[in-house]
Records
---
Amino acid sequence: MSGPHYPGFDTLSLHAGAAPDPATGARATPIHFTSAFAFRDSDHAAALFNMERAGHVYSRVSNPTNAVLEERIAALEGGVAGIATASGQAAMHLGLSTIAGAGSHIVASRALYGGSHNLLSYTLKRFGIETTFVDPRDLDAWRAAIRPNTKVLFGETLGNPGLDVLNIPAIAAIAHEHHLPLMVDATFTTPYLLRPFDHGADLVFHSATKFLCGHGTAVGGLLVDGGTFDWQAAYDKTGHFAELCEPYDGFHGMVFAEESTVAAFALRARREGLRDFGAVMSPHNAFAILQGVETLSLRMERHVANTMKVAEFLSSHTAVESVSYPGLPSHPDHALAQTLLPKGCGAVLSFNLKGDRAAGRRFVDGLKVFSHLANVGDAKSLVIHPASTTHFRVPTEQLAVAGIAEGTMRLSVGLEDADDLIEDLARCLKLSQKGA
Amino acid sequence: MLLTVDGVQAYCYTGGKAFNPAQPTAVFIHGAQNDHSVWILQTRYFAHHGYNVLAVDLPGHGRSQGDARTSVEALADWLIALLDAAGVEKAALFGHSMGSLIALEAAFRAPACVTHLGMLGSTWPMKVSDALLETSRSDEPAAIDMVNIWSHSTMSQKPSCPGPGFYTMGGSQRLMQRISAINPALVFHTDFSACNSYANGEAAAQSVRCPALFIFGTKDMMTPPRSAKLLTTTIAHCKVVSVDSGHSMMSEQPDAVLDALFNFVSGSR
């Protein structure tokens, strides 16, 4: 007989945080469309407001449907708490703003999603938070960029646009040497392919819009506190993270690190950032994302299998200059990917088509199964041609600086029959070269 | 709140309110490989409803310095010394698991100091299996996982603790791991050995004259309610409350545990 074991990933995907509704017996998680929740009496109300009892007060701070999703992602990631937000951008902002403010500094990978880059480069800078961007593969650069006012290191598990694999163990070690946490955007990998906390990360967020939802139906974000970072020890050494280790006037002088030894970050993020910035997820979206999470492992297996077939097809095609996918031996992070991503490298890849922007347009305009749009992580296959969409005003030379060529395509490989995807791509690769 | 006990710094969480000598005091004592934060909701409620709260970190646990004590008797002596250091003459003692034995032994050693005795997830003898005892010595992370799995009855407790969105099984695992990280001196094994070797439970129970409360988790695999019969029959005047939970009852059923504790002390004040 085997010893005790935690519930497995698939079991958690279906059950963590959810039980049949005690009022109705409903087996599916109900959508709690309510703004507020009635108090039993005035003492109950005061106790809820003052965190003496657990429960719901107002849906901007918590909602029963959202709570199921939050607890489920925390369980799947191996963390202590989740917070559902209006979008992945909101999750990133909530994570950073909980521990950084005017005068703070962030060290970030330069291989980031454009929206994350915008937030760090322009918007947070306007609020006094500076970011230094580094080559994610250059460990010395991470170390050298840390300043006395640095509060967090940040990167994506799979970077953009080159699918760089973040060396989480090495970068976490650098962060921890300096008494800093590592925050990771794990959108492309999901906890099924990679659990960043197992490798040293301390905070994780997702654009749940993508693979967690899985069907392109809801925008949402999830921030997860790993409970791994000792904020008090860091504060004692560096004076950083007073937000968690000194009395907070905005919540009756609460010292979050005293209240909760391991979930101080999540407490503050909910009690301050979610409350005050208000970027909360709709319970309807929480329900839609929960439906996706229930089948996450099944979908990710198929996503990865299809992507590998597509990547191998593209890499042998004469109209393709190069393919960037860590599952291929040609990718510079292939060996690291085999260590950190043994179940596969996700379902997003990029490739460079031979030819100019016009060839790229002929390719995307001819596709019938792939949809041309700006998203990833749908059950349906997606494609975007940066040079004619997100970067259409950018001169060719500047595109190259961003790692994008005129013929660069990004694919998000869906769950269709792989043969149909390859046929669609093959036909349009041929079409793309006709005008050359 | 920081105190000095036996010349060493000791930490007590006070529930978000300053200590007020004019108020009655409730002392909360955590179990093996834990700290004060397992009582977060109950302690905040008590502190904001007319009680001083002293939720201790036992020596060598969390924020309290010094070596972990190797016997329940030594821990009870430390607790009595802590009350003295805080200037508390009388207090209600609430203990969970190993903490319940410390409360019981403190009531035996200093009965005049104890107004109420609350024992949660308790039993006596508190025998720890040879396998778990050995695992806590040779492979502490594995022992943490074993105890964490056995201590939780569900992966979907509502409304969770300390609030919605918190995954209590994950929080409990991380807390025990943190106790190890702060103090790598095999605290878990020391705590389990203290529970395992505590021999004075029956005599201590026979001496209890103050109001006594037992709270049992109906799904508790660590200290099954039926195993506590000797204690509940010996303390014949005790009150027994059952809650739908495993061993981690303060997080699995925070309101039910709070209501049982608060009604117990406020009803007989």
---
Amino acid sequence: MADRAPIVDFDHHSPQVAADPAKVYRELRGKCPVFWTEKHGGYWVFTKYEHVAELLSDDARFSSARRSDAGGEGSSVSIPKRPSVPQYPLELDPPDSVPYRRILNPLLSPAAAERVRDGIRTRVAWCIDQFVARGECDLVRELASAVPASVTIDWLGLPHESWPRLSKTMHDIAALNPDDPRWLEASQNLRQMYVDLAQVIEQRRRQPADDVISVIAAAPITPQDALGMVGLLVAGGVDTTTSVTSQALAWLSDNRGDHGRLLADASFLRSATEEFLRMYSPAQALARTMNGETTVGGCAIHDGDRLLIGFASANRDADVFDDPDSVMLDRFPNRHLAFGIGMHRCVGSNLARVMFEEMIRGVLSRIPDYVVDTSALRPYFTQGLASGWQQVPATFTPGRPTGAAIDVTAFRLSREAAH
Amino acid sequence: MCKAVAPDLVDLSEEDGHATPRGDEITPDLDAQARKAVLACPEGAVHLVDVE
């Protein structure tokens, strides 16, 4: 390790980073934007937009594929590696990733996401109906986690009644201390979920239904690969959407001047969506592995070196974004990297945007005087890879339920296609 | 993003969402949209070329 320099005593999972990741990364961008740390077996950290963009755009050198000779076994895109079913296409390099990506692209295209907007809006209305008469709620568990979890469950074609367990599981795993008994329970639930998913995939392979799991089950891939793809859709799409939505709602509670315009002006809401994604990037960082030898930011990177790519840090780079630590809802240009770029750009980004927009609209229209108890906001235990608030308690003037109904068929593929 | 800022210049595939330019030439009334598309693309995939 002697020729890896500069070396910084840094751990992206540390309490210091969890307390204020923006501050930590701002200091690193200023003093040492590319560095090596000996933590977790050793890895490089890239904090500047130019380097993050370079790494994300070159899959040949900066690989997403698993290599047991680099950091051991487990997920290639996290540091440290975690035992998991390989998630395809995320953990493949092109061209191997391309056939898997082709399965997912039509299911999550901008048009496909728009086709389920009405269903998502109704789901948001139903979720708000459950708490609107109380005058108080946790905007994370009762909305920002509930909506993506229930939409994902119905869209995949899983039993609707399983969404609360998915919501709690994904949020607890992302937010809590791994020593917390609730985290352990969530971890066990996640393992069971994969067992259940494998059974559903096999059922759909034999008897297809009108849902996304059937499309994946019918694809010319192994059952293990299908399980990894479905697992990716769940892991990639639930708590990430929760994270950016909850942080945006907390900010909007303290900044009320544009609430009306967000409701009245769709293009302003779109612009605001991108700004919240930039500011509150749910994926703080993901990992790659170096193939070959190269130099980035003046640092010699060696074959097999593990690389931590700071998406969220890049999105606060003052070389690219004016006043990067301020929210400007009409910011333009806004070339944020919250969804990544290149071949592994988040396939669920379009659906995530629709869910986010509808949740913001729902809150601003149904509980417009909501106030977040900022004293009760707690960040995720670790914000090394994901970020967010554990809970966002809010109070508001009680309202009336709309009577919105659960309609799982809103996410059936044939109904989408008929739209 | 390019479709959002340049709706008259970009088509999105219904199948996979890939963006393709609608035609080769930018008329003066669409110049502003074109320049916004260049600025908006995080992939750096949009370029304007002067044609004599």
---
Amino acid sequence: MRITSRLTAIASGAILAVGISSAAQAQLKIGFVYVGPIGDHGWSYEHNEGRLAIEKALGAKVSTTYVEKVPEGADAQRVISKLASSGHGLIFTTSFGYMNPTLKAAKRFPKVKFEHATGFKRSKNVSTYSARFYEGRYVVGKIVGNMTKSNVIGYIGSFPIPEVIRGINATYLAAKSVNPKIKIKVVWVSTWFDPGKEADAAKTLIDQGADVIMQHTDSPAPVQVAQQRGVWAVGQASDMTNFGKKAHLTSIIDNWGPYYVARAKAVLDGSWKSTDTWDGFKPGMVQLADYNTAIPASVIALAKATRAGITAGTINPFAGEIKDQSGKVRVKAGEKADDGLLAGMNFYVHGLDGSIPK
Amino acid sequence: MIDWLVPAFLTIVTAATPLVFAALGETVVEKAGVLNLGVEGMMIMGAIAAFATAVSTDSGLLAVLAGAGAGALIALIFGVLTVYLQSNQVATGLALTIFGLGLSALIGHSYVGKTFDGLPKLNILGISDIPVIGPLLFGHDGLVYFSVLSVGLVAWFLTRTRAGLLIRAVGENHDAAHSIGYSVTLIRMGAILFGGAMAGIGGAYLSVSYTPLWVENMTAGRGWIALALVVFASWKPWRGFFGAYLFGGITIIQLYAQGMGVEVSAQFLSMLPYIATILVLVIISRDSAKARLNAPACLGKNFHASG
């Protein structure tokens, strides 16, 4: 009796020990590298939300680490290598400029899986992923085209790269389809983040007749200015409702959580492969904040139908015929722009004023 | 034309005012012979202190005072290190900027996403509704008027008062000032604290008036521009004031030009303010004797009371 109980104790102890060690083996350490502070209320903030989504979904099976404000370049190389050498099995590097440092680290640590955001170079253990934010901008275009009274949309651009130009084109095509008189005024501020300068640009655009302010920069300052001046605004990267409850029509939100959780699960069950992901509404990588209640019901219905159409694949923002400013056909009628054209988009569509800074 | 000139000018005022405060404070510090490169750090601390105070008390006045206090507090660290402990001014100032940016991010963590209505616009004599002149002269918030007043007071103080003369004496020749019995350390500490408070108010203007919100690193390099302005203005308060408006003006005009479809590359237009600074620097330092006459002779040199 005594012996058996002792044996049971030993056995259960052994099982416990085995249990612990197997749990330790199975626990996946996941590292994140952010280019900005997680308090930027924009890009890095949303990547961190994705990290928290992994913790919530997978609990004790994973542990996560993050390093914020990592400059692109040599520092990134050190941070990524440090994460890889300290037992992390999966590492997300969340800025375009981490591309080469990620690939170098991946070569040195072939057993570690890497996920690089917005890049285009892959290897056996490096995947890339990005979001089709232009799908969100297309839905927003339908809304702003209906909401503007002056027919002038003010658009604050950061840098004239394909990602931003794609957004301007998608907005214009959608707005034009509901309002043929629409004009988009673009002001480039040459920064992703400078609340003061973004606010100045918003004021400038409003002074010049814009009654809707859109932005492809990261601070909530333009939404705030729109609220003060009594015009509409559309937020960027995360939900900016709080910064101007009356002005805020909606925000285009980056939602990395579902993708991050899926990739962490893939590593855990051994099915992880190097892939290239460019997702939009369908898996929920791009989302929209709650629509302002001041938007007429018919416009909200149109926005919802557009979003549903894009999700189902029946609506394509860049369906032909699409001409560029010079009138040259870039996408033929009946065709859709392929990903190559989208990824390298460097022209304004026909009807847009101004020119892209060289 | 006039219908967009007025709003353009109003935007220039908001862009220039934080620079006016920070540059004015630094002018006094440098006049006393101290080079404090920590303006950015003091500004950002002023910004978070003012915003935190504004959110919790809803008082614009308290917010500005908190901003000034936080700037002065950071400046106090700089003063103790450089004036009393003789550390290198350039290195200490740079460290202060990095420290301020980090500390403000830490303190500001829970304030991300909060909002504040902003300082009220004044309506002086009740006539800010008069077209053109009303909004241009009578409709700003209190800090804008305070910035103009401060420039006038500092210009008068530096050139017309005994205390101002002492500050300049310490900046020109600290050994001589010391040998006739003035406390170089106390005078420098006073100037450093004033500079910190002004930078803090400049930061406060950013977070409670210009863009009433808190996000990390929201000064976005304005402290460095203020430092350049001091040299640009050859250490004269009124020139610094006009420099700030010129600087703000070029920034805003390029945004307007883009909106009006002027075909100039945005990158070039964004460079303009900096090119202007370099040009003026070249022009004022062309005559090296004159340049030396402008810069305080003991600028950046630590003072050892020997013998």
---
Amino acid sequence: MAMSKDFENAVEGLAQGAAGAEAAAAGPQRGPEADAASHPSVPRLRARFGDAILHHEVVAGDEHVVYVRPERILEILGWLRDDPEERYDFLKDLTAVDYGGGRPLQVVYQLWSIPYRRGLRLKAELPLDALEIDSATRLWHTANWLEREVYDMFGIRFRGHPDLRRILMPENYAEGHPLRKDFPLRGRFSRAEQTRRALSVDLDDIYFPEELEVGGIRYRPTGSGSAGEGPGAAEGGAA
Amino acid sequence: MKTKTVEYLVTRNPELGMDGRPVRVPVLPPGVEPELRGEHMLINIGPQHPATHGVLRLVLELDGETVVRCIPHIGYLHSSFEKLGEYRGWNQIIPLTDRMDYLAPLIYNCAFAMAVEKLMGIEVTERCKVVRVICMELDRIFSHLLWLGTFAMDVGAFTVFLWAFQERERIYRLHERYTGARITTSATRIGGMLADLPPGWTEELQHFIDTFPNTLDQIEALLTNNQIWIGRLRDVGVIGPEEAVNYGLTGPNLRASGVPYDVRKDRPYYDYETYDFDIPVGEHGDCYDRYLVRMEEMRQSLRILQQALDRLPDGPINVDDPRVILPRKTDVMTDMESMIHHFKLVMEGIRVPPGESWFSVESSKGELGMYVVSDGGSKPVRWRVRGPSFVNLSALPRLVEGHMLSDVIAINASLDIVLGEIDR
């Protein structure tokens, strides 16, 4: 049962294609550049990271948003956490926003400094064909589940995450990433197909290989029912 | 059929080495002689299990009775509220919020309305502010009482459960008289509340405030100095202050570890800085301190409730803002402009200007953040809930390692999670 190329592209969010590229070229919606002196951390960020700080704006009255280059996110987050004058020691939230229309996905970091009682929001924009960013798990344990949720819901991969797998959707979920704008509200499969899949879950999908190993159950790496058909069986046979 | 090529790196406690690769910690629990190590056993708890407080599933790797590793599985209640919210008008999202934390629905109603009001630049009326403070503090007690009853039952004390639920029933009645529903309250609207307080409601609340401390004293007499209670909870599930912050714990769980972080004090909203109340802080970060902190929080909430009742001002409950509030029904019947206004608000919904806002409130379980993003339409582009239970539960594997199997139940109960909000 090979999935068609179109379907795979749709699942990966690449189907938005040419129309998306136009919207992406138009750029994301950003407010005017804010007065840097209005937040104590922003001038210091600019002095230290220079052109990695792309934009600074104030939203909803008092919320400061700083757009940064995704390649340097880990460096910036680490500095903000450890610098004695910043001490953003609490990662409140890590999530993503999809504006749709082929625009880049935003990864949003909500930071809070418990000692200095101030907050800062960092955003890193990822184009749809390169959804990968460094994981913040080496700075905060709390990033572990939050990044798994973003991966599950948006399909953004976090480099260096110790355990990047789906968290809310089942591991064998094959319809893509639900919170992306191109994902239809009721899912990609028909109700009949969804029911069939829900009823045909087997042991490998409920337990993970390491759990099965501890429980003394041999793990079948190619999934169930693949014997004698498809490329999976051929590989299994060779091994 | 495609080959399954997922690489799993489930480590006992995912530590990262110098090169950023996960380091596998040896799976030997502390205090076990190497030659006494037996074969490890796999135990599955849940998803349908009374002690997991919902449909949480824990897979435990045990060495004898000692937990070597815990892998939580969540998502059994997943209803994709955040996705549903992107297909609903701003006021229509409010019923979704109270289905998340059905143990403290009013706090979630208020938090969402506050985030949208912040984005629209609406300042609610003085009366509405105080009514919302009453709602939130009442539901803090409401939620802590359920936690108290089930926690005690998990650790083996049944009486407390009955006493706590008797008191909860009174709050249920207050909910029902005000909103018409016991759990799914949907009490707020953007710019105000669904209605003003019904007559006699404040007297009933006053009666609750006067009599509830009595029950609380009785429960404390049963538990606080109880040898079995202390023996089961002290030094169980300990987490230090720095680690607790790093794990993102908030609310009573964080304060039990000695970090005095409370959104009501650190970033006050709705004039919380003018109320006289204290933030209880623990010292040891164990289950017993989490118990003590929540018990004291209920008393502090009563203090806030009393002050709020005393200062409850007269005046309108809803803002006078035609963008969000429907005109009066009599005007709709007699006045053409009001009818058009009513029609447009109902058919098109509220329009929120483009932008985004984040609003944090101190929910009963920790910091609840509502993040809304609008593109100027009548539906949000993104609605994100930073659920305190979700983040608190992610620390569970760290907390239960090295403890006995029976402690897993106590630690899980002490975290006070609600699966509706974790799975969303």
